[in-house]
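Please review this one:
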Amino acid sequence: MDPYASFLSPGDNAWQLTAATLVGLMSIPALAVLYGGIVQRKWAVNTMLMVFTAFCLTLIVWVLWAFRMGFGSPWISTFVGKPSAVVGVAGEQAQAVIPSLKGLMPSFRFPEGSLVYFQFVFAAITPILFLGSVIGRIKFKVWLIFVPLWITFAYAVNAFLLWGGGYWAAKGALDYSGGYVIHLAAGVSGFVAAAMVGPRLARDREKAVPNNLLFVAVGAGILWLGWNGFNGGDPYFAGADATAAVVNTNLATAVAMMAWIIMDMGFGKDRKPTFLGGVNGMICGLVGITPAAGYVNGVGAIVIGLVDSVVVWMLFAYLPRKIWPFNKVDDALGVVYTHGFAGLLGGLMVGLVADPKMIEYIGIGKAPSVSGAGLFYGNARQLLIQAGAALTIIVWDALVTYAILRMIKFFTPLRMPDAELQVGDAAIHGEVAYPEEEPEIVPTPVLVGAGRGGDDGSGDPFLGESPDIRSA
């Protein structure tokens, strides 16, 4: 007997499943802990529950119809794939294939189930990311309705256009691991949703103090290292390009984090380095390198990390104070900056610094190797293609997000009542992250009146009891 099908490479399959698990960890627990630690104490449970439910809902929708819409056979021209389920034997054990890319890349050496799950964790993290824009006021049941609809009509379309062999893929647009499909989409949709749901309570905006920076550190650390699977898994093979993607990811992130900290020290309001500022820079680096990870060399990774961090820092400092609509929309965790603008900049810089010597797939015989080339390597057209793909994602996702929320609003308000907003988790879920326990009264023996008899303390003492208040 043989445990491996004729097409299957144990190494490729093992790496694909490992990479998918690393990406899954970026959502649960990383973003649940990171977002749950950044928000006010009263919103920690609500935040964590919305992260976990988005993960659940996306998987259900993904295997029933959305995966094929993003990675199946063309259905509506080159816009979206034909919806169908992948819960049968073929959907889990047959050789993986993306029909529109067959012959344009090496044949997969792992089962369809590995591809389904790998692409699922990418889909799941996208609404979880833009949850940060609407946290602290969107109704929980609205979230439960919104996520499946958004995955169907926004994410699946994005994926097909750029990854599934759709229009922009055919034009040669480069989005290595989701700078556009995931991060630009999250920034745009989160911003539109924040505008439609409305702002948090004024008191919550003024006192938006993180409830646990240690949790933020744990979440940020898992997010960073999980990104090794995010970008390292996207060549679909455990080859040299996967290694390059991992190295470039970490290099760009390190540069971006330090750049943000230095900007805070030199030009920030208080001229002090802050951990939250460093995390913002870290995320900018991770997001910026994502569309480029396997297409650029180390110098390109450094440039992307530096430019992304510095530009987003300046936008973060200026736009919310001066420019409409950014000064009117309450994007609670700044997702439009650290994901929207960072993803856009990273995608555009691919059109500048993609190095044709960075080979993703090696050509055999007359077939050319697969790589990308940007403006700095003689291909000016690539920048125009990147801009066109970005514009498509921005317009489509904004329209779809608006339409979905507008429809939901016919049946229920998008925003929680002010009475629930005042209380938070206890009113909405009946539980809190940090319960205040009632003190327990414990009797403790105490010697009362000792030494009242003589100089030697040998009088007539007695044993009494006094209350000792201890936390349970």
